[in-house]
Write a structure and sequence with these properties.
It is a single chain. By secondary structure, the chain is mainly beta. It has one domain. The chain is 8% helix and 36% strand. The protein contains 1 helix and 7 strands. The strands form 2 sheets. It has a 4-stranded antiparallel β-sheet. The chain has a 3-stranded antiparallel β-sheet with strand order 3-4-5, with no helix packed on it. β3 and β4 form a beta hairpin. The N and C termini lie far apart (44 Å).
Length: 98
Amino acid sequence: MTQAESPDIAIVRLGEGDSAQFAIGALPRAGRLPFSKVEVHATHLTVTGQDGTTEELGSDAEPLAPAVIQQLLSDEGLVFAELDEDSGEPVATERMKG
């Protein structure tokens, strides 16, 4: 027996290259990208979607890799990508700058 997939959960990639970090989160739903606000903390990010929903990416207990934070603070910014569950290809992307 299989369960129906929840449309509220997404697989996301934070960053590019060897520094990329993967997570399963609820944020990338229709109406949330592009982000209206991104706050940088030592171990995580707080992002606010266009629909007003705020979510933490990473935490003190499960910190983002330092390279992910560094990419966000760089001139190029951090690529946030929602990935297709089957193919692993990006279905929505956004470049965030902190």
